[in-house]
Amino acid sequence: MNAILTSVIAVTGTLLGSTLTHLFQQRTVRRTERVAGEERVRQRRLDAYGTYAGLLVEFRQAMLHHWFCLHEGQDAGDEVELRKRSFELRSRAQHALFQVLLTSEEPALLAAATDAFTAVGKIDRGKDRADVVARRDATRELIDAFVDTARAHV
């Protein structure tokens, strides 16, 4: 009888140990999968935000260069190419904006992204050099504000 009791206790202990081990392993796997998923989303956002900020800077530079070409004759022979480049960069920046809009749900971030894109797209509407310089400075601040907001959400 003593041997049977010892065997029952041993089998019960083994089953209990196996069950607890299985439960802890499942919990660990779920946590690992959750952390990996969160990291993938974080990386996707980081890529989208960084790409967008970089394209905004390029788009802004192209718009400024095109304005100076039209209004002050700088690189006047390249006007068609500069216009084409600004259109291409606008399209690429807008595509990157869509990526930001799809990867984030933060209203402040989405507003900062949209405001920056809209302002950069209006640089070429400057009436004179002072107006363009003011628009240039304002867009730099808007791009910086987007980056600062994005940093808080990655």
Automatic annotation (TrEMBL):
Q: Which domain of life is it from?
A: Bacteria
Q: What is the protein name given in its UniProt record?
A: Uncharacterized protein
Cite the source lineage: Bacteria, Bacillati, Actinomycetota, Actinomycetes, Kitasatosporales
